[in-house]
Fold this protein.
Amino acid sequence: MLISRGGTCARALLLLSTRMAASSISSNLIAPASASRRIHGSKPFSTQLLSYPPFLSRASLFSSHASVHSNKVHKKSNSRVAALLEIGGVKIAKDDVVRESDPTNNVPDSIFSKIGLQLHRRDNHPIGILKNAIYEYFDTSYSSMFVKFDDLCPIVSVQQNFDEVLVPADHVSRSYNDTYYVDAGTVLRCHTSAHQAELLRAGHSHFLVTGDVYRRDSIDSTHYPVFHQMEGVRVFSPDEWEVSSTDATSYAATNLKKCLEGLARHLFGAVEMRWVDTYFPFTNPSFELEIYFQEKWMEVLGCGVTEQEILNRNGRKDSVAWAFGLGLERLAMVLFDIPDIRLFWSTDQRLTSQFSAGKLGVKFKPFSKFPPCYKDISFWISDSFTENNLCEVVRGIAGDLVEEVKLIDNFTNKKGMTSHCYRIAFRSMERSLTDEEINQLQWSIRETVQTKLHVTLR
């Protein structure tokens, strides 16, 4: 059973517009809070988290560099950013997500352009093919048991994304360095777990949630600021574990491992597996499943027995549950032999024509061997410098033409000043880049890094 829940998106946008209106009114009546703000009646939210660095406002960053691009590159970029999109039957305007006037907003045009593309809902796309293969496993092994959601709105509240899954208030994932904030109380979801609590409250006891998730991250062949996850949850009632003569937690953990070992065999065949104890805020005990594949151990997913506090808060006080989460890109890159995560977003027919619905594990055949071009940039960093902010600047200027940003040298001089040298690899997956084009991009990156990240070029 596949269900679309557009109401989730509508509620998120209603909350967002209400906060926008309230903010506009209050700004004319009272001075801004200087110590802390409250979000949805929750505990105070530190202003250190709220005040987003000015160097990443769209007015100065994503517009100022545009003039240095060739007309061809500039027009191509603009054509991909639609002003209005629709998810689950709900229309989302660009102004709902990208807000130049809000200092707590750090969502660039390039990220908004990915919302609504929903690669996981395309049956001929590697991500969609993998999603459907997982669905096939659950439909076969647990007939009509799991309800599937794959059209839930990626705009969620801070409460949904963090608080309801017990992410600590001081956890690094809450920072503006790691998460895209629409405003102080609204984010682009970092994980599909953001919908877990509301689905439990709605009465669902067996469900799969698939969707696009958003994180500010480094730039290399395996990291991208938008990727896709699948979340699975199963709830057990007392009568299910009481007859097993085991305690609730042990019963859920055993069932979980049996389920996911079956999934691994369904996707990868008869592989060797091992379970590794780990930590997640929302499960206890927590595990990672690894498989021995292509002569090395590879992490497949994270999972565990749901923290009882989550169940207690959401109407399941006498129950126990398990949950798992997996990254679709990570598995698809291995199953389809896709060497660069940027390829998932390519519309080049030489790529898209290689895949078809139901064909899991078709090996990607490279269609281009365009060489990379390397450019270095060195600067004295400031106290506020972070590598994620650098990568955001580079992505905002070069987009998917940048293949990797890598720290190749750093040192601290006698005056206590620290220097970083980064090597930027430019390479298109579809065409050769010209020297002029790369030089323009590099010049723009140098200029923007210096003015917006408050560093001193060397």
